[in-house]
Design a protein that fits this description.
Length: 192
């Protein structure tokens, strides 16, 4: 199948050549269009490159100018890829922060009913000051929750600083300070 040259609008050429649209339109103003695209003048890429770099129709463009254009395109593509990667990492980190907050809240909600159960159990056995005892235990749980949430957030911040995405308990366990409550080896088993 034979390849044919594509026709480009001023906007399309400006994007592909990484040139300001108005500058390109000025350079193309005296150049005969190679055809039309949706009723508007359109040019082949070769015609546009010749117009931009001041070459007469049909002559070879300066290899240095063509190389310069290729480098500009490569730099632009590299920047686009870098931005896409950064946006993806930021989305993963935002999800990671939300997941860690949800984990801290989940454990808080799982532990808090223990104080209520303790209160009911102490009351059924006739223990005096059951409310004070259960309240003290609940205070411990709240303190533990606050400490755990703080350490989990610190682990998330450390992961973000190092560019690590926490994908499971093993990654989290390696980032938590010693004595937090579970060891990385235990965390490895939790991911299975």
């Amino acid at each position: 199948m034979a390849m044919t040259a594509k026709l480009w609008s001023v906007n399309g050429l400006a994007t592909e050549l990484d040139i300001d649209r108005r500058t390109l339109a000025k350079k193309l103003s005296g150049v005969e269009p190679d055809g039309e695209q949706r009723g508007n003048p359109a040019w082949k890429m070769r015609t546009a490159i010749d117009a931009v770099f001041g070459k007469s129709q049909g002559s070879e463009p300066d290899p240095m100018e063509v190389e310069k254009l290729a480098i500009m395109r490569a730099k632009r593509r590299s920047l686009e890829l870098s931005n896409e990667r950064r946006e993806g990492a930021e989305a993963e980190f935002a999800w990671q922060d939300a997941a860690i907050q949800a984990m801290a809240t989940y454990y808080h909600l799982r532990l808090r009913p223990i104080a209520t159960w303790l209160f009911e159990e102490l009351r059924s056995r006739g223990v005096k000051e059951e409310r004070v005892i259960a309240g003290t235990v609940e205070g411990w749980f709240i303190g533990c929750h606050a400490e755990a949430a703080e350490k989990l957030k610190a682990a998330a911040a450390e992961a973000r600083k190092r560019g690590i995405v926490i994908r499971g308990f093993a990654d989290l366990g390696r980032l938590l300070p010693p004595g937090f409550g579970f060891v990385a080896a235990d965390a490895d088993n939790a991911d299975e």
